[in-house]
Amino acid sequence: MRIMILTLALLAGAPGCDNDADQWWKGNTHTHTLWSDGDAAPELAAAWYRDNGYHFLVLSDHNILSRDEKWFPILDLPRSRLTSERVDDLIARFGEERVETREVEGKREMRLRTLEELREDFEQPGAFLFIEGEEITDQFNRLPVHINGLNLAELIKPQGGESVVDVMQRNLDAVIAHGHAHDRTTLAHVNHPNFGWGVSVEDIARLRGEQFFEIYNGHRSVRNHGDADHAGTEEMWDLALTKRLTELDLGPLYGLATDDAHNYHEVPEGHSNPGRGWIMVRAESLDAEAILNAMHRGDFYASSGVVLDAIKSDDHHLTIHIRAEPDVAYTTRFLGTRRVGDADGDGQPDLGIVGEILDETMANPATYTFAGDEVYVRAVIISSKVHPNPFAKGDREMAWVQPVVIHGQAGDSTSP
Ligand SMILES: [Zn+2]
Ligand SMILES: [Zn+2]
């Protein structure tokens, strides 16, 4: 009898940890406030996320933590981010004792609430958590390289470097070293690679020590879908995954969805509003260590609207249970790159189409059976529902499941 020998080793991190005590926690790891270039007072941003069903939030301002004393000018001008009307709204909503203003040389200012103060007002065990973080905002020859550092004990300055990949790696290394120095779990993710066409797929493929990038970012300028000359982030994911897992001997790359929200006051097209993209993390408890450890294991998915009840994988299958809304249809697409024999006889398997659609189904649960020749398999779920406040017009609500890495291949040897 010929038996297919499948040695599918799911890397630590593949979706599939099966502890039923774990829960899904909804979070956004990338947003801005008046501490840098966002238009919301930090308490307004925090309240938006708490009131919209999020469990955790990272206020990730550019090269600054929400610490110490910072006063923001109150200006009644057309493009002002803090007007006296907005200050009055803050007083009405959060109380006079939480809105501190002063006048310096005839100019009014408001003191920005610190994360420490926000924690007191918003954090609730098991319900809402802040993870302290920063968008380390760096560049190389004007190409933007932005990395979010999560669970930091203090500010990390942009590290600079000799090339885009060097700048990226130095900043990732700084976050990793920071975690070691402060004896805490940190996490760094590479943001919006196509913003300013800053970070190429070659750069993303080469990141070491960390393994996260934004597959979806809600900011209007980030070009998630690429253009005629540049791959979109979906295609980048497949190209980078294939290169990492076959050529570079690096681990998988995990995808996040984030808001990168800057605009809390208007909701017209073209602004960068909260609520567009988030992650769901499966962890035993709502604390920074548990959340980030689960992410390091790959036990999370990215979403722009589609909610999943379960993601299960074993040696043979990847199964996704979708929390279906009435009258909404879901298409689940399984993608991956196959090893297709060794035509040139160099001992290295040749590769099929990169990011090939291996299967597509409208079933729920959606199940894919591994053939064994895949390098990895990932899934994307596309809803029939149009996103209510999309990154780009016509975007559907989606979810992105992390790749399952498959080692070994279908052998044709006989087994006793
Ligand atoms: Zn950025
Ligand atoms: Zn940002």
Give an overview in words.
- The protein has seven helices and 20 strands.
- The chain folds into two domains: 23-70 and 112-405, Metal-dependent hydrolases (TIM Barrel, Alpha-Beta Barrel), CATH 3.20.20.140; 71-111, no CATH class.
- The N and C termini lie close together (9 Å).
- By secondary structure, it is of the alpha+beta class.
- The radius of gyration is 22 Å and the shape is globular.
- The strands form five sheets. Strands 6-2-1-12-13-20-19-16-17 form a nine-stranded mixed beta sheet, with helices on both faces. A three-stranded antiparallel beta sheet has the order 3-5-4, with no helix packed on it. A three-stranded antiparallel beta sheet has the order 7-8-9.
- Bound molecules: zinc ion (ZN) (2 copies).
- One zinc ion (ZN) binds next to loops.
**Regarding CATH, which class of the largest domain?**
Alpha Beta
Tell me the strand percentage band: 25-35%
Tally of separate helices: 7
Question: How are the strands ordered across the major sheet?
Answer: 6-2-1-12-13-20-19-16-17
Main β sheet profile: 9 strands, mixed
Bound molecules: zinc ion
Domains, number: 2
Mean pLDDT: 92
SSE layout:
Layout: E1 23-28, H1 42-51, E2 56-57, E3 71-73, H2 84-94, E4 101-104, E5 107-111, H3 115-122, E6 129-130, E7 133-140, E8 143-150, H4 164-181, E9 187-190, H5 201-205, E10 212-217, H6 233-246, E11 254-258, E12 278-283, H7 288-296, E13 300-303, E14 308-313, E15 317-322, E16 330-338, E17 356-361, E18 366-369, E19 374-386, E20 396-405
Parallel strand pairs: 1-2, 2-6, 10-11
Antiparallel strand pairs: 1-12, 3-5, 4-5, 7-8, 8-9, 12-13, 13-20, 14-15, 15-18, 16-17, 16-19, 19-20
